[in-house]
């Protein structure tokens, strides 16, 4: 499947503008973060160096700080205003946050404004990379996975969530009745992502998918939520310009076909994945090194 072409500058602008409103609208994002955090219960790992790739306003950093109070955390995001919001966030509440503040080496999470496809970290320098609903904004997802594999230490873990192709399917179908333009971002299939992980050098990838649905009183409320979190269509071939009144009425009418029990649904296909870096015995071009130990036979006289 062809990878979606993403305009990275538009991604940074959209999320930068949404930094102040993000937390108020991030209902789905908080739920996915909680479900991703639950998956760490099943992982046998005690990371010392953790990267939250696409940290946004720091909601995920708070969960990671609570779970791994002794770890060194770094939050990375493409939008500087998001990092500024994360920096303003206080330490996690409760016992975990109290313990963290008592630790001699405890430090707040560092923030780095950078691209997930060009990480400013040394090779094999991270024990855990966590990324929630950020990888779908990569312009070259397989290249992003290769870059993550480079930065993760041997036996380190990548744990992530992202959106699948049925995300906002109702909105996509409603827009199809308006014109033939690209109005809703396209997302990769779970199986394609699994293949990319293997090609990038990861081992034992595990992929899961679930459908989550939010409901709204009207279409404007849905679009207000999307704008509030910065989820703007950043496809390079996206439609430009403002929508006219006639087109808006057509869009509303198209979406009304999905109304059930007085509410309009917005479906999200959420993909969860994790994979291990393995021993990383690979060359730079991805070829794996296989080592054979050949014992020498000693010839004996009979």
User: Fraction of residues in helices?
Assistant: 25-40%
Instruction: Briefly note the structural class of the backbone.
Output: alpha/beta
CATH H-tier superfamily of the domain at 8-163 and 188-210 and 270-276? Vaccinia Virus protein VP39
Total helix count?
A: 11
Bulk shape: globular
Strand order of the main beta sheet, please?
A: 3-2-1-4-5-7-6
CATH architectural arrangement of the domain at 8-163 and 188-210 and 270-276:
3-Layer(aba) Sandwich
Count of β-strands: 7
CATH class group of the domain at 8-163 and 188-210 and 270-276 = Alpha Beta
- Compute the CA-based radius of gyration: 22 Å
CATH fold title of the domain at 8-163 and 188-210 and 270-276:
Rossmann fold
Order of helices and strands: HHHEHEHHEEHEHHEHHE
Gap between N and C termini: 65 Å
Spans where pLDDT lies below 50 across 5 or more residues: 289-302
């Amino acid at each position: 499947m062809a990878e979606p072409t993403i305009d990275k500058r538009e991604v940074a602008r959209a999320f930068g503008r949404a930094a102040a409103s993000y937390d108020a609208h991030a209902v789905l994002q908080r739920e996915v973060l909680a479900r991703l955090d639950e998956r760490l219960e099943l992982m046998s790992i005690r990371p010392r160096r953790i990267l939250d790739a696409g940290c946004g306003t720091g909601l995920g950093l708070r969960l990671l700080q609570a779970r791994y109070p002794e770890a060194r955390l770094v939050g990375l995001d493409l939008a500087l205003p998001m990092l500024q919001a994360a920096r303003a966030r206080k330490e996690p509440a409760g016992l975990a946050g109290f313990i963290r503040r008592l630790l001699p080496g405890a430090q707040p999470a560092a923030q780095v404004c950078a691209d997930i496809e060009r990480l400013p970290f040394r090779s094999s320098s991270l024990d855990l990379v966590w990324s929630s609903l950020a990888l779908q904004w990569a312009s070259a997802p397989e290249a992003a996975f290769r870059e993550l594999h480079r930065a993760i230490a041997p036996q380190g873990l990548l744990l992530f969530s992202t959106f699948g192709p049925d995300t906002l399917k109702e909105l996509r179908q409603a827009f199809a009745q308006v014109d033939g333009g690209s109005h809703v971002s396209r997302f990769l299939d779970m199986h394609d992502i699994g293949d990319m992980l293997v090609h990038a050098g990861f081992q034992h990838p595990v992929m899961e998918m679930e459908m989550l649905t939010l409901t709204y009183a009207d279409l404007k409320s849905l679009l207000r939520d999307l704008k509030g979190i910065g989820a703007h269509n950043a496809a390079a071939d996206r439609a430009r310009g403002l929508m006219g009144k006639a087109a808006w009425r057509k869009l509303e009418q198209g979406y009304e076909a999905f109304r059930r029990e007085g509410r309009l649904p917005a479906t999200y296909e959420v993909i969860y994945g994790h994979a291990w870096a393995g021993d990383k015995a690979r060359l730079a071009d991805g070829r794996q090194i296989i080592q054979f130990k050949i014992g020498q036979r000693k010839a004996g006289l009979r």
